[in-house]
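pasting for ref
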Amino acid sequence: MFTFANPWLLWLFPALALPWIFRRRQEERIRHINFPLLQFLRESEEKELVNPQLQELLLLILRTLLLALLILSLAGPKWSAQSSTRSGFLSFLPFGRSLQTHVVAMDSSYSMGYGQGDQSIWREAEKAWEAVERDLRGFSTRMIQWDRSTIRPNQKNRLIALSALERESLFASTPKEPGASVLELIESMDDSFENAGSLILITDGQRFPWSDLLQENLDRRSIPKILVATVGGGPVANAWAEIDSLSSPPWGIAGWEAVAGRVKALYPETPPAGTISILQTGGNETLYSRPASFPDSPNQTVVIPFEFTPQFSDLRAVRQLSDAGGELHLTLRVEPLDLLPLDNEIELNIPVISSFSVGVACQGGEESPILSVLLSAVNPLRGAPESPPVLIERISPPEMTFGENLDFALLAGDLISSWLSAEEIQAPLDYVKNGGSILLFTGPKESSDNPWSQLLQNLGWQWFNTENEAEQPDSLSIGGTGLFGKALSAWDESMWAHWIPAHHGRVQDDSAIPLAAYRIGDQTAYLVTQLSLGKGRVWIVNTSLSPDEDPLLSPLLPALIWETGKEVARQTLRVNPSIPAERFESDLTRLSVDEKALLTERYGIRFADINSLGNALDRVYGGVDLRLALLFLCVLLALGESWLSNRLASM
């Protein structure tokens, strides 16, 4: 079909009537005077002329056609046949091939680095580019780099064609950037190149970039004519690690964050046995290691559990940084390394704190099973030489004082409700409003005139008046935003079920964020709630820590205490460790024959390997820019008009 770069210039076509108007006006101004002596001379000349009126009409038509071609060429016409597989109708002309534009996208995502030496996919991609450049010689081509460095998600990307020097530097190094989808590439190409023709992709043919087109049935007209040159082969062997979250129970402290994740693998045969290790980045010292059996397919995983974290006493680097704070640089490694070693390692920068203090509200000198478990949960190694830098303070009556150096306080209704006085209700509220943090366990439901119940009401907590307290809750939902929410959701739902109390309620406040919620009848109850109050925050946990209840000895109790402490430390230190993004392109599963046929049938996308690339490129046609051809015709018409005009003037 025809497209125009400046279609508004087509409105100038009514100007084609001007030569005819001028000709008519000129004839009206001419006065004819007959001279008898010249009559015989004119008759003799007219005998020699071949229909002079026809020549004048031809001159007028030439001028009109010249003006029409000039307007049309300025409008920038281009013929694009996206559905055609034949050469352009002007490609046989000397200038025809140079007017056909092609975009060559080089997949430079890190999966293209699979292999070694000359047998790597990246070296095959370089050979494929040389073949494309050789077969498209004479065509106008733009080579672009296709990865996350050039195509960023949720942004309008402007692609820039690589220069010859940039192409050399591109193949001089191994790809290390994450990949982007084909649909993102098409959208970026439309934003960058006006009326672009064919798109030639040089890629390893794995399924990840095509997932959007395989799942969605888009309008075929929105997809340009695409030729895919696939390089590399299969089957492949690959194993890679992913981080689900950064978290830690209290017995596995890595500078207050520990590693939890999973390992995936893709092997054509029985996968080998390997190891998963944590090392100090930049060194060869292994801090922790354990054997692992790789899964048979990428849909299966080997979990890196929470207990697979270095003990605090093992992290000598933490002790070196503990005085001044800083970061702990760790490397998570999967061995044996395969032919894509980039995704066999994950770099982690974990913040380290110098000290941390927790205040536990209890009576002075009190020793109870609840308090003993809480103190052990806050710091299981307290008093030992390898104890982490965690201090415990007791907040006792008759005057509850929250020190300035206190990082967060722990209030449990099972400990505090028996001695809390009405005069001390305001103390924890003022502490939070001034920037403090409290982890609060509601305990059992108390009478409304109890000071502890009054404190809960001041925080917005309301108990449900459930007629059937024995009703079974359902639809337990766990998690929230940030690392804190992800750490909570990492625990199995069945472990949280033991925390659901006999009496239910929720915070009646718009600023409350439910981190764990469940349905009880037709109401939504909150199990864990985050509440902002002034400059500080309160985490309300609706459960009892009575020795008769499961939560007291549940592994969730120390984990929740430490996750709350780490969340406070992140805000205090203004750090937030980033979780490495999941590497979808690590799964080197290639497009199947049926998937290629589906893409061809649905969008007209054609596939070729390095051996059939030459024949496929012979059928590539992106479009012809007609401006140069029209300007060439304008020159010919101008010469013809000039010759004919001079001939008529000389008569």
